Amino acid sequence: MNGGADLGGMHGFGPVIEEENEPHFHSDWESRAMGVVIALGACGQWNIDQSRYSRESLPPADYMRFPYYKIWTLAVSKLLLSRGMVSEEELQSGKMTSPAITVKGRLGAAQVWDGIHSLSGRADREVTSQPAFAVGDAIRTVNKHPTGHTRLPGYARAKDGIITKVLGFHVYPDSSGNDLGDDPQWLYQVRFSARELWGEDKNPHDSVTLDLWEPHFA
Amino acid sequence: MSEHHNDTHGHAHGHSHDHGDNSHLDEMDARVRALESLLVEKGYVESAAIDEIIQTYETKIGPRNGAHVVAKAWTEPEFAQRLKDDATAAIHSLGYTSRQGEHMEAVFNSDDTHHLVVCTLCSCYPWSVLGLPPTWYKSPPFRSKAVIDPRGVLADFGIKLPDNVAVEVHDSTAETRYLVIPQRPAGTGGLNADQLADLVNRNSMIGTAFADNPA
Question: What interface predicted TM-score (ipTM) does this complex get?
């Protein structure tokens, strides 16, 4: 979607400013929000692509100005509501007034290290087709503006690039994030020259690579 | 964005906008407390597990992991070659198998090419080797600018590269996570891998800094 998260190429946000000796978290609610979101993953009620879509479909002006863990909190609240895990009234009050639904799992404290190291987030799937492209091939990306989840950013649509690596056969987020299943596809690293993306006044040596799936190619 | 966070601690810093707005921080404190309490009551999460997750990322998984990878690549040509051929296997072989490091690519800075990693669409970052991303990495200024004006981003970090050094930006649009292998600083021939790892700062593995020079 052309939402607030698709930031590549925008102007006006000012310089990148690094906070010196930045702590991991700036307040307790940030660390609790991070922990809640990771722990909820173990319930198995959504995948990472659905989680990203829940964040990027926040109102653009909110997405661009809210602290990052506020975005996480609002997005996970939407997911909890949509899965029937909580009600709006419960979110407001913090008190349980409806029964819990059955979830696929629950992360206990003793399982955290193993859970984080389980590699269960692997996105590659058993290969069922051959890649249609090879390193060195020229491709052009599609000019499509889906309203759902896509990992093809706006700035890289209808652009010419060169395949620089075949990365594997991976879950296709443009399907998975839209509740349509894994639909695995061949994934490639694609290089675009800075001039192709941004115009002739850019440094001729500079480039941007994106990792794109076969359906992103025209 | 960081300016909101900083307000809760009263830090002085260089931002010029949005100061003095604590309202949504108090709101978030209450909201997240209510959320966690509700989720615990409903049996979906355990507070002790959340404590453990936070502690893991505050104390156990961070840029020391990545620095180990880089120093090993600097000192062991065979390992450097494995990183180039199959970074996932090479990094996993060191035990760095945690989430957001399932699929890895290592990109090597050279005299000809400087690599810079970003995620314009969200905040994809190699947690397994760098830990949690800094706020600037997740914020609109970096995510918007890195792809259209990478040399401007480098200037924000005090780096100026000659025009004939190519800047290659990697926008992390899939589950592949990119680790920059910075160039080994000059004058480090006598250092061992542990000493070298101390020179590998976090930003050098994102591409917004060089490795430190030896003291």
Answer: 0.98
